[in-house]
């Protein structure tokens, strides 16, 4: 009888232990990981929807307040969104806006692409070679700290009032963000990885292709995204000084005739160009360096 009682008690205790283990470890680790990942996807989707909802609400509130304030003030001094929309339709109908937009976009793309290529090339060379960096350090720093607006009249004297002067101005606005970020990206390459590559007798070409460029690419894309905003500023500054074509000419000419709504039309177009360009560059960055945008 004693033996039977001990056996039953031992069985009962072991069953309790298994029950406790099953309570504390109810599911395998793999299933739990998948569940957490699915829950995280839902949270990310909800957060993105919430972000776009908040952006839309903020934009709507700004437009409503702007509309109310503009209608309660002198239209010569302050305009409002509906008046800008009507002015946009009028300027598209008479052809002034498409012509000016095409002229500004031509200058923007030419100067931006040229400045980006020059900035990337100088950034890669100065980041990799200490000799070239020492030779170009003072000239680059001097041009970077110099207000480009102060050089615009000189550039107009050198290149005239046409498109070449505007392209040079946009190039100068574009080069330095790309150059500085590219140089920083090259210098941030892990020295241990470079040592490992050299220990395996990697050539300089393979070192650039397999290590330097992939490591520096996120910095390059950041510099390009910063440069597009400066390039838009450069276009308008150049057209203010030349004042013969483009969106800058529309701003100046309409401001002289106190047509406030028509003044805001090129400004809004520039805002849209900046937003679209930044979004496209962000998509390109996600495609070129996807490891920065992966969500675990």
Explain this structure to me?
Residues 1-11 and 19-31 have low confidence and may be disordered. The chain has 296 residues and is an all-alpha fold. It folds into two domains: 16-69; 80-292, MetI-like (MetI-like fold). 27% of the residues are buried. It contains eleven helices and no strands. It is globular.
Keywords:
296 residues, mainly alpha, MetI-like fold, globular
Give a quick account of the main beta sheet: strands, pairing sense, barrel closure: none
Radius of gyration, taken over Cα atoms and rounded to an integer in Å: 30 Å
Q: What is the count of distinct domains? A: 2
CATH class of the largest domain: Mainly Alpha
* CATH homologous superfamily grouping of the largest domain: MetI-like
Q: How many E-type strands?
A: 0
- The H/E string reads HHHHHHHHHHH
Strand content: under 5%
Tell me, what's the shape? globular
Structural class: mainly alpha
Please tell me the overall pLDDT: 79
CATH topology of the largest domain: MetI-like fold
Q: In percent, how helical is the residue content?
A: over 70%
Uncertain residue ranges? 1-11, 19-31
Distance between the termini: 60 Å
CATH architecture of the largest domain: Orthogonal Bundle
Helix run count: 11
């Amino acid at each position: 009888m004693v033996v039977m009682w001990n056996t039953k008690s031992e069985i009962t205790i072991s069953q309790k232990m298994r029950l406790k283990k099953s309570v504390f470890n109810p599911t395998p680790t793999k299933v739990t990981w998948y569940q957490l990942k699915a829950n995280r996807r839902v949270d990310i989707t909800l957060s993105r929807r919430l972000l776009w909802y908040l952006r839309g609400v903020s934009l709507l509130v700004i437009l409503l307040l702007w509309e109310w304030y503009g209608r309660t003030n002198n239209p010569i001094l302050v305009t409002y969104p509906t008046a800008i929309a009507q002015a946009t339709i009028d300027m598209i109908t008479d052809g002034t806006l498409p012509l000016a937009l095409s002229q500004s976009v031509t200058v923007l793309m030419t100067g931006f692409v040229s400045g980006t290529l020059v900035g990337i090339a100088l950034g890669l060379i100065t980041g990799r070679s200490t000799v070239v960096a020492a030779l170009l350090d003072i000239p680059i720093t001097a041009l970077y700290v110099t207000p480009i607006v102060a050089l615009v009249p000189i550039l107009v004297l050198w290149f005239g009032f046409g498109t070449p002067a505007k392209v040079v101005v946009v190039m100068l606005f574009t080069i330095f963000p790309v150059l500085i970020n590219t140089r920083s990206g090259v210098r941030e390459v892990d020295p241990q990885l470079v040592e490992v590559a050299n220990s395996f007798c990697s050539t300089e070409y393979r070192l650039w292709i397999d290590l330097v460029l992939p490591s520096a690419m996120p910095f390059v894309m950041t510099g390009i995204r910063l440069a597009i905003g400066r390039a838009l500023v450069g276009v308008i500054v150049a057209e203010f000084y030349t004042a013969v074509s483009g969106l800058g000419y529309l701003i100046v000419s309409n401001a002289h005739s106190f047509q406030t709504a028509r003044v805001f039309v090129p400004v809004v177009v520039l805002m849209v160009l900046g937003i679209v360009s930044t979004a496209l560059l962000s998509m390109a960055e996600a495609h070129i360096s996807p490891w920065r945008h992966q969500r675990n």
